[in-house]
């Protein structure tokens, strides 16, 4: 049984190990007009702001994010659609994690590329929550649009097939959301500085997000997000272990 367990852990580590292929290969519309306002907050979208309740429309000191849930295709997961607005000479980012003080965060990054006429740029990184280092992250992100207006970065993007229950005993759409920013020189993203960290929120429950059931991290080595592939891998491994034990 011990052999089985270490095999299992090794497999999980392998799956989540950094070094996943660089994925700065997103296609997106630059200079796409995105209209991000706080209209609909608490009704059609869940809004996370700093300062509290600020309106991103015409206000560069408002750091704003919103989330709306799209279709759910069980067991693959739920599509979540995000908006992000904030001023930065580098990047602003939204992170999803199980616990901001352990494991990893999936960071979705909207930036202005100072080495390309301050044009909009999109990327994804995995952040280590302990030492705050960023590593490449093979994320699937769709419907990316963004613009940089007067130093304010505004973007929209969609993450399909999110399913938190693969790593935690919680609602499949429950995450801690982190907002933050950093520098970007056209090649490297500087240290991520956190502006806001939420409690665990059920991102699909706009009216009452904090009624999320308490999260217990099942596997602290993983933390952030996993595709359906991990479930399949674990199932196969469990069967294998049961067979060999
Ligand atoms: C990254 O994702 C692409 C598309 O899903 C996949 O083809 C590729 O194998 C993945 N790379 C790694 C290292 O997981
Ligand atoms: C980036 O996209 C191009 C064309 O879509 C593809 O040829 C290339 O393999 C991709 N690179 C990575 C690292 O995914
Ligand atoms: C985006 O818009 C800015 C300002 O209107 C302009 O200077 C820049 O050339 C545009 N970039 C692209 C890629 O269209
Ligand atoms: C932006 O959205 C708001 C509310 O959704 C709407 O009132 C406004 O007309 C829109 N502005 C533009 C330029 O589309
Ligand atoms: C911008 O937002 C901040 C914080 O909510 C607020 O104090 C300020 O009055 C707003 N400015 C404008 C022009 O709306
Ligand atoms: C950017 O936002 C911060 C607050 O988040 C504010 O203090 C600063 O004045 C803003 N900078 C500009 C250029 O608007
Ligand atoms: C949800 O699915 C329906 C039917 O497939 C589709 O028409 C709709 O655009 C989807 N919604 C989103 C947000 O993708
Ligand atoms: C779930 O994902 C798998 C693999 O990406 C795909 O083949 C399948 O069609 C998806 N199922 C649904 C219901 O979308
Ligand atoms: C999330 O994954 C679990 C198993 O990993 C599955 O039972 C459940 O149906 C999935 N939920 C959604 C909404 O896809
Ligand atoms: C997050 O992890 C810390 C230990 O790193 C733990 O003390 C805390 O209870 C965890 N929070 C949640 C909500 O699980
Ligand atoms: C940060 O921690 C991860 C694993 O916890 C480790 O792989 C990485 O080397 C560390 N980075 C630094 C700069 O310490
Ligand atoms: C950009 O800032 C300048 C000076 O503050 C202002 O006159 C202009 O209207 C702003 N442009 C937009 C699109 O907000």
Automatic annotation (TrEMBL):
<protein>
    <recommendedName>
        <fullName>Ferric-chelate reductase 1</fullName>
    </recommendedName>
</protein>
<keyword id="KW-0732">Signal</keyword>
<dbReference type="InterPro" id="IPR042789">
    <property type="entry name" value="FRRS1L"/>
</dbReference>
<feature type="signal peptide">
    <location>
        <begin position="1"/>
        <end position="22"/>
    </location>
</feature>
<dbReference type="GO" id="GO:1900449">
    <property type="term" value="P:regulation of glutamate receptor signaling pathway"/>
</dbReference>
<dbReference type="GO" id="GO:0099072">
    <property type="term" value="P:regulation of postsynaptic membrane neurotransmitter receptor levels"/>
</dbReference>
